[in-house]
Amino acid sequence: MDIINILPDSVANQIAAGEVVDRPASAVKELLENAMDAGATQIDLVVKDAGRTLIQVVDNGCGMSDSDARLCFERHATSKIHRADDLFAIQTMGFRGEALASIAAIAQVELRTRPHDSELGTQVVIEGSHIVGQQPTACPPGTSLAVKNLFFNVPARRNFLKKDSVELSHIEEVFRRVTLIHYDLGFSLSSNGHTLYDLKAGGMLQRIAGLYGAPYKERFYGVEEDTDIVKIKGFVGKPEYARKSRGEQYLFVNGRFIKHPALNAAVEKAYADMLPERSFPSYFIGLQVDPARIDINIHPTKTEVKFVDESALFAILRSAVKKALGQFTLATELEFNTPDEFNIAPAPKGYVPPQPRISYNPDYNPFRATPTQTRLSLEFQRPVDGGYVAASAAASLDDTIDDMAQPEPAGPVDAKPAPNCLQVQGRYIVTPLTSGLAVIDQQRAHERVLYDRLTSSAELKTAHSQTLMFPVTCRFSAADADLFGELTPDLRDCGFAIDAIGQCTFVVTATPPDIKDSELQACFDQMLSDYKGATMQKFANRSQSIFATLARQMAVKPGRLLGLEEMQQLVADLFACPVADTAPNGKKIITIVKPEDFLK
C-alpha cells in the first residue's frame, strides 16, 4: 500500500509560511524589503491591532503588470535570480520568491499595483492561497499590498501571538532595522490611526535622531574606513552613554541587518577598559562587502551570514571603531597658564634639603589584638587585595574564628547575625553567625530588601515618595511609550509620580527614596527590556517583573564602600526578609563558611 503523498500547494505554502512568517513583524519585514527592491523612495507602513487585523505597505515603486501581479504570489516566483550562481552575487533584499506566497497562504491579501507608464492598475484578491478575483482598478503608481486577518486559517499559530503591545514592539524593531540603514528613503509607520514615525530621507545620524529622539545626535562618534575588503560607515556611541542591555546594537551588511556574534564582539573589544562592568555600547554600523564573498542564503530570515574573510573583517572593524573612539575622545588638556601657587622659585645653589623624619611607636604590634581593637571601626580604611577593610579587620577576623571554634549556647540557629561586619573587595559583607561565617553579596542582598519593600508597599498602598527638585523628562520610542504607559500604574503604586506630556514623553516628579533621578531613563529602559524579554517569564505577574528591575537598578553596586552602620542595617534588613538567601532573579545571596573549614 502506497503511503507517500504529494502535499497540495496550499498546505506546502502554509508549511513554508511557518519558516518565513511566524508573527506580524515577519510579514512586515518581507513587505518592506519588496517595496525597497521595487525602487520606492517613499514607503508607508500601516498596521492595525499590532498587525493581527491589518498590515498594509504602500510604496511609489515601479509597480507590476497584470501578469506579474498574479504571478508574484506563486511559490519561488522571483525577478531577482535566474540561475544558482546568482545566489552568490545578490544585491537585492529579497530573492527566494517565498514571501508573498507564504503570506497569501495564511491571510487575506489585497494587492493594488500600477506601473508608472500605465493609466490603469491591477487589483488581485487572495484568501489562503486561492485567488478570489483579479480586475483592473484606478490607483496611484506603485504598489499597495494589504494583509488582513493574519493566520485566519491557522488558529493555532494565531493563539501563540503575544498581546498587542509586545507584537507592536516587534514590528517597530523590524521597522528600525530596515529604516536605519536605508536612510536615503522616506518611511512612515502608523498604528491604529496614529502616526508613530514620519521619517524623511537624509543621513544616518538624522535617521537615528528621527527614531530615537533629537538628543541622540550628541551621543555618537562617526566611524568610517575604506579598504579593499570592506567599507565601513556608521556611528558608535560615546562610552558615557553605554547601556545595561544590547538593545541599540545594529550591524548591517550590504543594506541588510545581520546578527553576527564575531563582528559584534569586534566592536565591543574596541571599547576595552572604557565601559563599566556589564555595560554595552550603542552602535549603528554599515558594512559594504563584495557580494561574492558572503553567503546570506543560510537562514530563512536572512539575518545570519557567512564571510570568506571573517578574521580580516574582525580586525578591520575593531581597528576602525578604536580609531574613531581615540580620534574623538577628548584627551586631557594641558593648561599652559600655570597658577601662581605652582610658580615655586628654584632652591639656592648648594642647598641640601633635610631628610624627612618619621615618628613611630617601636612597641606597636598591629597583630596584637586589644579589647578596643576587637570591635570594628571604619574611621580609617586601607586597601587590601583590591578591596577595603577596617584597620582592625584582621584582628577581628582572628577573634571571630577563635570564637567559632568554642562551644556555643543552645538557641535558634542563625536567628540573629552578630553585629560585627567587614567589607571585602567592595563587594561582600562578612559577618559571624552561630553556625559559621556568612559571606553576603551586598548587591544581591540589597536587591532582595528593596524588592520585598517595593512589593509590600504596592500591596498595602503605603509607598513612600520623595519629590524631585527638578522634574525628569524621559523619552521613549513610540511602541515603548505605549508599553510604558501600561506600566505606569504599577510604578505609581511603588512611589513614582509620572505623567504623560506627549505621545512619547513622560515627566517624573517624584520617586521612591532609594533611586537617583539621574538613573531614571536607564532604569525605565532596562525595565521595558526585561518586561519584553525572557526575564518576565521568571515572575508570576507584571508587577513582580517591574519591581525586580527597579530593585536591581536601585541596589548598591559592587565597589561602593559601606560604613559599619550601613552594613549592619543591610544585614539586619536581609535577615528580616521572608526569603533571605536568594535574590529576586534566583541567584544566591549568602555563603556560609563553617568553623571546620577554617580549622582545616
Word description of this protein:
The chain has 600 residues and is of the alpha+beta class. The chain has 3 domains: 9-205, Histidine kinase-like ATPase, C-terminal domain (Heat Shock Protein 90), CATH 3.30.565; 219-328, 2-Layer Sandwich (Ribosomal Protein S5, domain 2), CATH 3.30.230; 372-600, MutL, C-terminal domain, regulatory subdomain (Ribosomal Protein S8, Chain: A, domain 1), CATH 3.30.1370. The protein contains 16 helices and 24 strands. The protein is globular and about 105 Å long.
Biggest sheet, in brief? 8 strands, mixed
Q: What integer is the average pLDDT?
A: 79
Class of secondary structure makeup: alpha+beta
C-alpha end-to-end distance? 75 Å
| Assigned CATH architecture of the largest domain | 2-Layer Sandwich
Low-confidence stretches: 330-343, 369-415
Percentage of residues in strands:
15-25%
Estimated radius of gyration: 32 Å
CATH class bucket of the largest domain: Alpha Beta
Helix count?
Answer: 16
**Helical proportion?**
25-40%
